[in-house]
TrEMBL record:
<dbReference type="InterPro" id="IPR021384">
    <property type="entry name" value="Mediator_Med21"/>
</dbReference>
<dbReference type="InterPro" id="IPR037212">
    <property type="entry name" value="Med7/Med21-like"/>
</dbReference>
<keyword id="KW-0804">Transcription</keyword>
<comment type="subunit">
    <text>Component of the Mediator complex.</text>
</comment>
<dbReference type="Pfam" id="PF11221">
    <property type="entry name" value="Med21"/>
</dbReference>
<keyword id="KW-0805">Transcription regulation</keyword>
<keyword id="KW-0539">Nucleus</keyword>
<feature type="region of interest" description="Disordered">
    <location>
        <begin position="31"/>
        <end position="75"/>
    </location>
</feature>
<protein>
    <recommendedName>
        <fullName>Mediator of RNA polymerase II transcription subunit 21</fullName>
    </recommendedName>
</protein>
<dbReference type="GO" id="GO:0003712">
    <property type="term" value="F:transcription coregulator activity"/>
</dbReference>
<dbReference type="GO" id="GO:0006357">
    <property type="term" value="P:regulation of transcription by RNA polymerase II"/>
</dbReference>
<keyword id="KW-0175">Coiled coil</keyword>
<dbReference type="GO" id="GO:0016592">
    <property type="term" value="C:mediator complex"/>
</dbReference>
<comment type="similarity">
    <text>Belongs to the Mediator complex subunit 21 family.</text>
</comment>
<feature type="coiled-coil region">
    <location>
        <begin position="108"/>
        <end position="142"/>
    </location>
</feature>
<comment type="function">
    <text>Component of the Mediator complex, a coactivator involved in the regulated transcription of nearly all RNA polymerase II-dependent genes. Mediator functions as a bridge to convey information from gene-specific regulatory proteins to the basal RNA polymerase II transcription machinery. Mediator is recruited to promoters by direct interactions with regulatory proteins and serves as a scaffold for the assembly of a functional preinitiation complex with RNA polymerase II and the general transcription factors.</text>
</comment>
<feature type="compositionally biased region" description="Basic and acidic residues">
    <location>
        <begin position="61"/>
        <end position="75"/>
    </location>
</feature>
Amino acid sequence: MADRLTQLQDCLDEINTLMYATLNYIQTRHPYGEIPGQPSQGPDPAPLANGDASQSAANQPEDRPGTPPPEHPEAFKAALHELAQGLVLKEQQMEILINSLPGLGASESDQERRMQELAAELQEVEKERAVAEEEKEQMVETLGALVVKVGRIP
């Protein structure tokens, strides 16, 4: 399992991806707004209601070629609601991770003391590692000498 900071970075990457996808969805699939007293600039709404995308694709404005047709307003609202729930859920996961980070609720002096304790513990473990490394080297030399002796026996 990854440490908390890595999990937090992953959540941040995921929420950025969700935000981009949401903005892209809104940009490409939003229903056209109607301005009172102005002719409609959107595609014919009848094919959208029937689900016939082939006719609505022919009615796309020229500034958005190759984009999917706009969503029906109710479907668009439902999709926005679902996307917003996903963003809120991911944000809550991030808050849980942030609240579980060490150091929150501890004073600066407590954190410094803990860091000094951990540094001392690290030095002790490093000494043990150096002793084990020395023992390993001695064993390798002993094993090498034994292999040489075994090779000489006729």
